[in-house]
Amino acid sequence: MSTRIATVVNGVDVGQLMDTIKAIEENPDLANFAFRAHNEWINGGHSQTTIQEFYGAGQTDTSRNEPFVLDGDEPPVLLGDNQGPNAVEAVLHALASCLATGFIYNAAARGIHVESLDFDIEGSLDLRAFLGLSDDVRPGYDDIRVNYRVKTDAPHDDVLELCEYVQNTSPVLDIIRNPVPVSVDLERIG
Amino acid sequence: MSTRIATVVNGVDVGQLMDTIKAIEENPDLANFAFRAHNEWINGGHSQTTIQEFYGAGQTDTSRNEPFVLDGDEPPVLLGDNQGPNAVEAVLHALASCLATGFIYNAAARGIHVESLDFDIEGSLDLRAFLGLSDDVRPGYDDIRVNYRVKTDAPHDDVLELCEYVQNTSPVLDIIRNPVPVSVDLERIG
Predict the structure, then answer these.
(1) A94 vs A100: CA distance, rounded Å
(2) CB distance from B164 to chain A under 8 Å?
(3) Is residue B44 left, alpha or beta, with left meaning phi > 0 and alpha meaning psi from -120 to 50?
(4) Of A81, A123, B37, B57, which sits 20 to 30 A from A140 (CA to CA)?
């Protein structure tokens, strides 16, 4: 029986956050997560990803009754039909969404109330590697710029320290800034 | 006046693809793209990304009449409300979507007809860094596994060589496997 009073900051239940941290401190295995996605090619540049279950906190999560469906495609200039944002645009979404959650959760944990928060993200990419026209340029972004705006009454030093902390602990920022090993296995069917 | 006959393979206009490659060979500046995303925090773990214009092929693209809107959120076990997939799940979508497009476009360029193509992707992540519980683990994925299935009549060696080529030229695979510099600037408003 819990007698704790619910404290919600920025829409985040800080009591639940502290309980989660405590549970993982006591049993670090609960911190092992495996996220999953399934993608099916539709036509041309268009494919569709479904995301539903994942493993975490010691079990398979079943909280989602329906899968999330994300379309990926290219714009006409890249031979697609605009059925969805393209893959490198989806990377920018992932980064923005990660920084937003990280900022809001960590602000809540510190009792910093955030009134508004928004991000502009831009990434530069030279298409020649993808098109097989140059071995000198990399296929992916050579540079990503994030500019974000926050409205809060918190002291400036606290906000700067929070910003720094969020950058050091953001999963997607780490994935982009640092190497992640990826294994790729192909199976032929039919 | 063009007299070329449209050749569509896997839904990709191969003639247009060759024209694009030729145009960029003649003017490499056309290969410079800048992709953009804007994200606004909604509440708790929920934020929303809009994606519409980008710069590429020498101009700002205006082919999209409406922005794509992508929701990001966390599941309840991570203190969210399942309004969308989370940020690290969005990374898996980006990777799958990139490999799908790369496989299909390059298959088309080689005259390889693909009947079906689908991907399962899984990434392992230790949540302790994000929660501030450990400096020994990284915040992002420590490992991503991609398994994909393809149905095609093409000779096996051609498929293997295509698979290898796609891995070497995939923008998102490069972004994940190799470091990308990211600058982050914070502005306080209000």
Answers:
(1) 10
(2) no
(3) left
(4) A81
Q: Which two tokens stand for residue A147?
A: 């500019």
Give B51's contacts (C-beta < 8 A, 6+ positions apart).
Answer: A85, A89, A92, A93, B36, B37, B38, B67, B68, B70
ipTM field: 0.97
Please indicate whether, in this complex, the C-beta atoms of A175 and B122 are within 8 angstroms of each other.
no
Picking from B145, B103, B97, the residue whose alpha carbon sits closest to that of residue A91 is B97
Q: How far apart (Å, rounded) are the C-alpha atoms in residues A88 and A47?
A: 14
Rounded to 5 degrees, what are φ and ψ at A180? Answer: -120, 130
* CA distance linking residue B173 with residue B159, whole number of Å: 19
With a cut of 50, say whether residue A1 has pLDDT above it: no
Distance CA A9, CA B146 (A): 38
- Please answer yes or no on whether A90 and B84 come within 8 Å at the CB atom: no
Looking at residue B4, what is its pLDDT?
60
Q: How far is A39 from chain B (nearest CA, A)?
A: 5
3-state class (DSSP) for residue B1:
coil
- The interface residues of chain A toward chain B in range 16-55, judged by CB-CB distance below 8 A, are 16-17, 20-21, 24-25, 28, 31-41, 43-47, 49, 51, 54
Taking the mean position of all CA atoms in its chain, how far away is CA A137? Answer: 26
pLDDT one-digit tens code per residue, B8-65: 999 999 999 999 999 999 999 999 999 999 999 999 999 999 999 999 999 999 999 9
Q: Name the phi and psi angles at B129, rounded to 5.
A: -65, -45
Q: Considering CB atoms only, which of B101, B147, B185 is closest to A146?
A: B185
Tell me if chain B has a CB within 8 Å of the CB of A15: no
Q: Residue A5: is its pLDDT beyond 90? A: no
